[in-house]
Amino acid sequence: MSKNLRVKSSKFIDETYRVSFKFNGSRYYGYKGDTLASALLANDIHLVGRSFKYHRPRGIMTSGSEEPNVIVQLHNNSDRTEPNVRATEIEIYEGLEASSQNCWPSVNFDIGGINNLLSPLLPAGFYYKTFMWPASFWEKYEYFIRKSAGLGKSPTTPDPDIYEHEYIHCDVLIVGAGISGIIAAKTAAKNGLKTLLVDEKPNLGGSTIYQNSEHFKINNQNSGSWLEKEINEIKKIDNLDIRIRTSVAAFHGYNFLLARENLTDHLPIEQRKNKTRQKLLKIRAKKVITATGSLERPLIFDNNDRPGILLSSAIKRYADLFGVACGEKNIFLTNNDSAYETAISLIQKGIKVEAIVDNREEIESKLLYEVEKNNVKVFKGFTIVNTNGYKKINKVSLMKLSKDGQKVIGSKINLSCDCLGVSGGWTPAVHLFTQSGGKLKFREEDQVFIPNKYSSEQISIGACNGDLTLEDIIENTPKYLKEFLNIKKTDYDNVEVFSSENKSKRNIWLLPSDKILGKTKSFVDYQNDATAKDIKLALREGFRSIEHVKRYTTTGMGTDQGKLGNMHALGIISETAGTKMGEHGTTTFRPPYTPLTFGTIVGRNVGEYFDIFRKTPMHEWHLKNKAEFENVGQWKRAWYYPKNNENMFEAVQRESKAARENAGILDASTLGKIDIQGTDASEFLNRVYTNAWSKLAVGKCRYGLMLNEDGMVYDDGVTTRLGENHYIMTTTTGGAANVLGKLEDYLQTEWPELDVYLTSVTDHFATISVCGPNSKKIISNVIPDLDLSDENFPHMSFKNTKIGKVNCRVMRISFTGEHSYEINIQANYANSVWEKCMEVGKDFNITPYGTETMHLLRAEKGFIIVGQDTDATMTPIDLQMDWIVSKKKYDFIGKRSLYRSDTIKDDRKQLVGLLTDNPNEILEEGAQIVADVNKSPIEMLGHVTSSYYSPNLKKSIALGVVRGGKNMMGKKLIIPMENKTINVTVADPVFLDKENKRLNA
Amino acid sequence: MFIINCPFCGEREQSEFKAGGEAHIERPKQPTELSDDEWAEYLFMRKNIKGIQFERWNHIHGCRKWFNMVRDTSNDEIKAIYKMGEKPPVK
Ligand SMILES: [Zn+2]
């Protein structure tokens, strides 16, 4: 049994509620309110992980989201296991299981620790330099690097939890519920503003709420008690929404913020059932007040990373908030007054403080006197040059600093301890501010970056704005709020503050050592094992920009984004390069501030809700008849209908034969349909299609090709003239939305004078296509009143008619080359008409066919599919479709581009038919086409765009694009494949029924 | 994500809109009269300014109307929004 370091009950911990949890397989106990870190510390466990590169033992360093070391894997199951969780943030619950992440086989015996001994061989850029050559070896290196890098395990089965997105619109958002955030929230809400206050911690009040010292008073009460009353008051305000356990991940432009609200992670597992685990809050705030506080800086000295070395402020928080002592013999290293506050807190609780090592020579501080009164030895003008203890610190060595702080002098003093608190002063947490586009300025006197220029309606207040003392916060915050919120007074205008703190600080970015730098391990980035030596090496090797140094040394690139060490990295760079701090700027802080789970990001959009899918009115029929489906855009289209264990090839062969020999039926409802009306409708079509439309008679249909302004084929389809000023245009399934958008664009911006109205009716009408020699008989039974004679109803014409009482439009158009009808009918009647066609068609061997057969049948006829045989580099001329380009029209979209120097070249890729010498050999779509395989490099002439085995022609057919193919008719070409070459002959792309006899058969 | 004040609908989320490239490039009235170079100028040449840019936007998931915007691309500040056919604001 390990020691119990719970020293004094804290009102923030419920000692009547004991919680058991497992860490690395062993059972421990904590109390409700503990974090995993505080509960481990109470059990005297410091060693909880290994560092990334050298596998050095690492312990709990902080008490918050800035924690670099203690990242653990939660749960061990396949669906909820979660890597990279910071033990300092997770609240313990009954059943919690966590394990150290970056160690193998165990945290106490770690094979990767050998890297620590090899560390002279692992300098900055080591990975880049060593593993880049030979490139082909990378896969092998990667395996070992990943195994030793401790990246944690991902879940392997779907996440069973529920996640949600919530949109919040508010007048004022306040990020951070420390003392300044609470002041801001009350002020905003009391002025009638719809206010939202978020904080990442489970309780409000930041670090002031557990402040219980005579040295910090507001209105004559200790500051913690004063703030507690304020918090109780704001909880009663109606127009103030408070979200705890809510961490802002991103601050985008226009005051759009993303936050993650954690709702169940602190609950015992059995209480989480059917509850939303996390919410992604999408917040749009008129005004944003950032009150994110500040982060204590560590100090950079040799072996500053041992377990038992913590930030001074973390030790205070563990003692005051959780009632946990981090050690029984504490020493502090500081350059400012903060460590004294912690020491006083510990002394109050009867925890032994051995000594304070202060970089400052002369100190005028009431806190210092108080500490000295309690017999704590203060070493003024000293620094720590080394620490000892492999798995936990047990000794520190101090030396006197020279006057300029660049050297250590005198003899070494050794002190034993079991915990070292470090305080290098405070860094305003400006991450969100910079994410929003704000610009920082550097404040020389205490070496901090503070907000300077805001990019939106926002301010930063409190410590994140550089007001690092209680006096500054109380004095400045109301002033800023009045100006920002346009109000005359606040409740805080006459608040009295008393503070014993002295602001003086002696900032030394890299503390000197008695050893040469090369012999020290002074960590700047704990998680990525980047040391001061690495940074200096990067500078020696010529890196200057902070962004380059960062990438080369990996400083600040871990899951903690270098929240602790980035300032020191900048400081060391500017000291070494002899430049001023402000000149380098900072590295860019990118969202998210703390990592988000994928579950939170996607919310409810998982599984079948990931994307919408569109179904035709006959979808259920296709399902019932065992169709396989293919996705075309968002549509589910029947692909083929396998019968008796047919594979796709067999089904398509059967369907294709049936359509030409008897009759086929296709659900073509997904084709885009645009209703075009207006007195200028004909003129409009003249301008958007390549062919002429003015002379198309009412009741007639025409195929049209639409180009982009660059002359390349964009879409195609049949348009029918329903009336004098009324057309219905069909588009490709995938192109429907874009075609409508493009037509609207031209109408609104280029030709606003045209009287034309466009309406998408794709979903309103379903389309049933019946083709084949028996189609006429089938339609005559389905619509007995319709005169189907060629004289009354010729190819490329349309009739308004009725099926029963329902109006419908029947077009005699064909995409298969067969005699063919397309029935367009109001969508809700379509399935019954489809079933009727099937019923009637039984006697005529009707066969339903899917998109694959449709593709095969049209390929036999050499009809193109836009997007398959074209790829936005094909003109109509390239497609050998010169016939559809009007020579008479003065202008249409893309016309001028058809005779640009590039588009008139003879050697452009042109569409041709391809026949394999072996009629049973089917080409692969996408395969390259060449003429000469002996020339090196082999010249690529083009590629195969469509390829099928035609059951009707009993041979393989293909379409392809070939450079200069138009003039290659009959020429032999070669398709080189992985293990063979296939010989083909260039042919006419129309393989079947060149005379179009079947249309009227 | 910015908020765009559609001249027909009012303020809406950026996700409802589609950007349509540089504004005030008129399609030539007589393309056939143009040389290859002149036509290429219209067809291909677009500005991509860091700073004040005039651009077209479409309220595609709303009223579907096109309009013009003056935007500072360096900070996404929208300086002005005006309807198609209206004169761009000076400065
Ligand atoms: Zn609109």
SSE diagram, text form:
The complex is a heterodimer of chains A (1001) and B (91).
Chain A: E1 14-23, E2 26-32, H1 36-42, E3 47-50, E4 57-59, E5 71-74, E6 82-86, E7 97-100, H2 114-117, H3 126-131, H4 138-149, E8 162-175, H5 179-190, E9 195-198, E10 216-218, E11 221-222, H6 223-234, E12 240-243, E13 246-252, E14 256-262, E15 276-290, E16 294-296, E17 309-311, H7 312-320, E18 330-334, H8 338-348, E19 353-358, H9 366-373, E20 377-380, E21 382-388, E22 395-401, E23 408-416, E24 419-423, E25 426-428, H10 431-435, E26 439-443, E27 448-453, E28 458-460, H11 470-485, E29 497-499, E30 523-525, E31 530-531, H12 532-540, H13 546-553, H14 566-577, H15 581-584, H16 598-602, H17 619-624, E32 628-632, E33 635-640, H18 648-661, E34 663-667, E35 672-677, H19 681-688, E36 701-707, E37 713-723, E38 726-731, H20 736-750, E39 757-760, E40 765-771, H21 775-782, E41 798-803, E42 806-811, E43 820-826, H22 827-841, E44 846-848, H23 851-860, E45 909-916, E46 928-930, E47 940-950, E48 955-963, E49 972-976, E50 981-987
Helix pairs in contact in A: 5-6, 5-11, 7-8, 8-9, 12-13, 12-14, 18-23, 21-22
Chain B: E1 3-6, E2 10-13, E3 18-22, H1 36-44, E4 52-58, E5 66-72, E6 77-83
Antiparallel strand pairs in B: 1-2, 3-4, 4-5, 5-6
Bound molecules: zinc ion.
The site of zinc ion (ZN) has 7 residues of chain B, from loops.
Question: Would you give an account of this structure?
Answer:
- The complex is a heterodimer of chains A (1001) and B (91).
- Chain A has 6 domains: 1-157, Roll (Ubiquitin-like (UB roll)); 165-291 and 428-499, FAD/NAD(P)-binding domain; 296-424 and 505-517, FAD/NAD(P)-binding domain (3-Layer(bba) Sandwich), CATH 3.50.50; 522-596, Arc Repressor Mutant, subunit A (Orthogonal Bundle); 666-857, Gyrase A, domain 2 (2-Layer Sandwich); 897-1000, Elongation Factor Tu (Ef-tu), domain 3 (Beta Barrel).
- The mean pLDDT of chain A is 93.
- By secondary structure, chain A is α+β, with helices and mostly antiparallel strands.
- In chain A, 22% of the residues lie in helices and 29% in strands.
- Chain B has one domain (3-25, 34-83): Folate-binding superfamily (Folate-binding fold).
- Chain B has one helix at 36-44, and strands at 3-6, 10-13, 18-22, 52-58, 66-72, 77-83.
- Chain B has a 4-stranded antiparallel beta sheet, with no helix packed on it.
- Classes of the chains: A alpha+beta (1001), B mainly beta (91).
- Bound molecules: zinc ion (ZN).
- Zinc ion (ZN) binds at residues 6, 8-9, 59, 62-63, 65 of chain B.
